[in-house]
Amino acid sequence: MRKKIVAGNWKMNLTKDESIKLVKTISTEIQNQNIKNNRIIIAPVSINLHAVLNNVGNDKRIEYASQNMHFANNGAFTGEVSASILKGIGIYITLIGHSERRVYFNEDTVLLKKKVDQALNNNIEIIFCFGEELEDRESKNQLKIVENQLKNTLFHLKDSDWKNIILAYEPVWAIGTGMTASPEQAQEMHAFIRNLVAKNYNETVAENVSILYGGSVKPTNAKEIFSKPDVDGGLIGGAALKAKDFAEIIKAIC
Ligand code: PGA
């Protein structure tokens, strides 16, 4: 049975002290919440991961992820972080393929596929982000674009690899813009994605994979979007930086 997940992507925000304080406040805000079979994941800036884990690691309901990971084991890759470096500080989840990495750091499908393989070879769970641009939707090509993104980066995987994959559909036009996909648009895409996984693998893999929606999720729209049958929670940017908002969004999956 797949899990509902709320994941916060803090992007390049918050100092070490601000990060620790925010996690502690979120933890207090949700202290009476029954998280049950759901998951809460937070991705701070990588340099702050270790400090956050060491200072707030007592709330076991919150898991931590890296925002990025390199495809090589180690070596001359200035500024990058490897799988073993992440595991060395106790991080076993990473985002891969966020649209900001694709756009600002030219990460293409060839590179993303290598990162996916490297993460899985290291038993690191992946929150794999993908989604169409506004012009793709306007020209009604969003399904084709998403199908290609998944085909080129994930559909070479084995059935058993999928237990370490969380999908995050994030239409680029909705990220940080305040323009959210309607619950119906999200459901249509999520059902399409689940169906694609079923076609390329089988019903069991498709039913077990969590598919998150990302793009301007807020306390005011989370419940409605998450109520759709194929939407298994969200990947949250801006609203993840405010404890009360993030806690409200978490309550929407509980
Ligand atoms: P947003 O970002 O919630 O600020 O739109 C989502 C994301 O980039 O994952």
Detailed description of the structure:
The chain has 254 residues and is α/β, with parallel strands linked by helices. It has a single domain, classed as TIM Barrel. 43% of the residues lie in helices and 14% in strands. It contains eleven helices and eight strands. The chain has helices at 16-29, 46-56, 83-88, 99-104, 109-121, 134-138, 142-153, 183-200, 203-208, 219-226, 243-251; strands at 5-9, 39-43, 62-64, 93-96, 125-130, 165-169, 211-214, 233-236. Strands 3-2-1-8-7-6-5-4 form an eight-stranded parallel beta sheet. Strand 1, helix 1 and strand 2 (39-43) form a beta-alpha-beta unit. Helix 1 (16-29) packs across helix 2 and helix 1 packs across helix 11. The chain is globular. The two termini are 15 Å apart. The mean pLDDT is 96. 2-phosphoglycolic acid binds next to strand 8. 2-phosphoglycolic acid is lined by residues 9, 170, 175-176, 214-217, 235-239.
